[in-house]
Amino acid sequence: MRKHLGILFPKSKANLADPKATHTPVKQPFNIDMALQRIGNAIKAFPKAALFELHEQGFTSAFELLIACIISIRTRDEVTVPAAQRLFKLARTANAISQLSIEQIDGAIKPSMFHEAKARQIQVITQCLVSEHGGLLPCNEEFIRSLHGVGPKCTNLVLGIACNEPRIGVDIHVHRVTNRWGYVSTISPDKTIAELETKLPRQYWVEINRLLVPFGKNICSGLLPHCSICPVLDMCQQVDVKAHR
Questions:
Q1: How many domains does the chain have?
Q2: Which whole-number Å values give the CA distances from 62 to 10, 24, 154, 225, in the listed order?
Q3: Could you report the average pLDDT of every consecutive run of 10 residues in the chain (245 residues)?
Q4: Residue 8 lies in a domain
Q5: Model-level pTM?
């Protein structure tokens, strides 16, 4: 209370307010159409996701994209693309790659993570395709998943990009970003695929990987995301974001 000329006045509300309190903007409902349109504009200056880049360069077969996806596992796109290019300069088909030694395959893809294991995997897959399937890789989910070490991410990316099937390829970027938005709530990429299949419009099933890989690398990064320049900040719930730029 303040005393002035013998009259007591209550403190103003401004004086009672916590000086450290900050205003939290109200988030808009998440609009996936608007979000992906904005992100498409925001990523134009960034390098494309590896498999989409290779596809644009003419490596369009299901086999080529499967091999590129194997190379890409735990490997940055800027390493994946030239590694795949070096291997395909030596050989581009299952028949041709099956004739290469593990050392030749390994030498081409060596900068990628776990390159020795990947070289052996690639040789096993190509020899299987040649000996049992005429060197051809069909656009068949069950068959691709049956190949040595091939999981749902590579299967869906191959089917979506090379085979023009509506498939959702979820890597760490797609998993992290969609959970950070609050669009899904999952604990693993495989579970993210399942949840996205229930709510993401099918027209975006292939597109979401093309958009969110460069977005996740350059804007919505794992540590200290660039929320200050995010085109969907007004809709993003920023789940588990402790600090940002």
A1: 2
A2: 75, 47, 10, 34
A3: 47 44 75 98 97 98 98 96 98 97 97 96 97 94 96 97 98 97 96 97 98 97 95 96 92
A4: no
A5: 0.86
